[in-house]
Design a protein that fits this description.
The chain is an alpha+beta fold. The protein has 7 helices and 30 strands. The strands form 8 sheets. The protein has a 4-stranded antiparallel β-sheet, with no helix packed on it. Strand 17 (about 415-420) and strand 18 form a beta hairpin.
Length: about 550
């Protein structure tokens, strides 16, 4: 027993009687005493239930319900489209249009629990690792923010110091100019005062001479002497008259004529509400090795390997889109909307019903892939660049420059795979750093490719072949069976590859190992000239686009 506390009989507890259980019913998820066990075995509803000895039963940490919470019926069916167990009531109400409904018992029988547990354990450890990295990243982020805070304070202080230093320089310059002018004017006034004092002294001497003229002298002598004094007085009078035109004799005032620009600067300073704006720049951090990362794939059902021979692709509906131009690429976004890239270079965003939501003001594009909820990446062959584009803000957030024309683009495991011309597939990270260079020989430009884990699958439509290579450049496999013009590609969660064969009007699925292939849709029931195919995020349904962008064909994938 996993617990020292004895398990009570469920039916007896309902009757307010405490009886120790002897067996455990996995279907009823409760213990049974020997008496109730007898009734349980004889009942038509429970005679086939699986029971075990209570001593080997290990209670689960969480109770697992085998009965539908909504309809209170036994969970006996499984919807491969929604990946969930159902009861008869669920099928009739919520899954009436779903294809690929299976017996839950058959699904359970085929599922390898130990491998599934190993996979989930890997996912748990991977998720914990990511969360630990995020916590570490946030701790480092806080330290960086504190350093940035001090750096901002230093920047403000330096800014203030530069302003103060410049004002001090202007003040010193102006004060020096005032000193120079003051000294010059003082010198002029001092010289004038000296000249005036000299004239005053001369006039006083002349006055003394005039007083010394006596009547005792001859009249002629007195006349000549007075005349001479008169000439001297006239000279002093002319000096006074001349002073009226001499700038030195004017009243002087030293004033400051303010620079007109100062008032404008002061006005701007008064209206200035802040020295700057503190901005929190949120840098996108791509998901690392997550099972829920954005990729062109979908899950069919739990298990080790999906057999393509059991697959069926059912056409559900056709949505008229009338793009009136050839579609270059198409992806399903995480939220169910679509991105369609046209040969005109335009990029359109469609809602889940296929209605045009907006056309982004970008052009010259080729292939498109999604990085996260808000960001896509697009190739520009003529510009030899990959541009990251925020769909919400409609802005280019980063540009990665390349050496060659770039075409096909796919994002997985925090890195891009991009097709360069006809002879190279480049693996680069989000910063644009080259991680791997894979040399290939393709007769057509590398327009259609899928990056999955450490492999890249690409179609060479001129050679009518689909190839698979790993990141070391090793050729894994090639498949050209029944292909005539392989175009768009996508994968499911098992790694099976779905190919839009353009000229034969068919959808072909190729097994993960490349050995087997199967026709899922042909010219009879499929779209004409299928060019692109993609799965909805984490679903077994998706869409196919025709060559001329007339309509989208919605499909649902199921397994027998």
């Amino acid at each position: 027993m996993a617990s020292s506390k004895p398990i009570q009989c469920g039916p007896c507890q309902e009757g307010k009687v405490k009886t120790k259980a002897d067996i455990w019913c996995n279907n009823c998820d409760e213990g049974l005493c020997s008496t109730c066990s007898g009734h349980h075995k004889r009942s038509k509803l429970s005679r086939h239930h699986k029971t075990i000895d209570i001593n080997i039963h290990k209670p689960s940490i969480h109770a697992i319900k085998t009965v539908c919470d909504k309809h209170y019926q036994q969970l006996n069916l499984y919807c491969t489209g929604h990946l969930m167990p159902c009861c008869d009531g669920c099928i009739s109400t919520s899954h009436s249009k779903c294809t690929g409904i299976k017996s839950l018992a058959d699904v359970v029988e085929k599922t390898k629990i130990e491998k599934l547990k190993e996979s989930l354990d890997t996912d748990i450890r991977s998720t914990l690792d990511i969360l630990n990295k995020m916590v570490k990243n946030k701790s480092g982020n806080i330290k960086r923010e504190e350093q940035q805070y001090e750096s901002i304070k230093e920047t403000i202080a330096i800014f203030r110091e530069k302003i103060n230093n410049h004002l001090d320089h202007l003040e010193d310059k102006l004060c020096h100019e005032i000193d120079t002018i003051l000294n010059q004017e003082k010198s002029k006034m001092s010289n004038l005062t000296t000249e005036i004092e000299e004239k005053k002294g001369k006039l006083n001497n002349i006055k003394d001479q005039l007083n010394a003229v006596t009547t005792k002298s001859s009249k002629l002598h007195s006349f000549l002497e007075v005349h001479q004094i008169e000439q001297q007085v006239h000279q002093c009078q002319r000096f006074v008259v001349d002073l009226e035109d001499d700038g030195r004799a004017k009243q002087l005032e030293i004033k400051l004529k303010q620079n007109e620009e100062i008032d404008e600067i002061l006005c701007k300073l008064e209206s200035l509400e802040s020295l700057g704006e503190v901005i929190v720049d949120k840098i996108e951090i791509a998901e690392e090795n997550r099972g829920t990362s954005v990729r062109r794939g979908a899950q069919v059902e739990s298990g080790e390997q999906s057999n393509i021979n059991d697959m069926n692709m059912n056409i559900e509906t056709k949505i008229v889109i009338n793009m009136k131009n050839t579609i270059r690429d198409m992806i399903c976004l995480m939220d169910g909307r679509f991105i369609i890239s046209l040969y005109t270079g335009k990029v359109n965003l469609l809602n889940p019903d296929g209605k045009l939501e907006k056309q982004f003001t970008i052009s010259g594009t080729k292939s498109v892939t999604q990085i996260n909820q808000d960001t896509i990446a697009i190739t520009y062959p003529n510009e030899r660049t990959i541009k990251m584009f925020n769909m919400e803000k409609e802005t280019i957030t980063k540009v990665i420059k390349l050496d060659k024309p770039c075409y096909g683009l796919s994002f997985s495991n925090n890195s891009f795979a991009v097709g360069l011309d006809k002879n190279e597939i480049l693996i680069i990270d989000l910063a644009g750093n080259t991680l791997k260079s894979i040399p290939v020989q393709s007769e057509s430009t590398l327009e259609f490719l899928v990056h999955r884990n450490d492999r890249v699958i690409y179609s060479d439509y001129e050679d009518a072949t689909v190839y698979c290579v790993d990141e070391s450049g090793t050729h894994i496999w090639k498949n050209k069976k029944d292909l005539s013009f392989p175009a768009g590609l996508c994968t499911d969660s098992y790694g099976n590859i779905f190919v839009a064969d353009y000229t034969s009007n068919r959808i072909i699925v190729i097994s993960k190992d490349g050995k087997d292939s199967k026709e899922l849709i042909n010219e009879k029931d499929g779209p004409k000239n299928p060019r692109c195919i993609c799965f909805k995020h984490n679903e077994s349904s998706g869409f196919i686009s025709d060559g001329l962008g007339t309509y989208l064909t919605k499909f649902n994938l199921s397994c027998r």
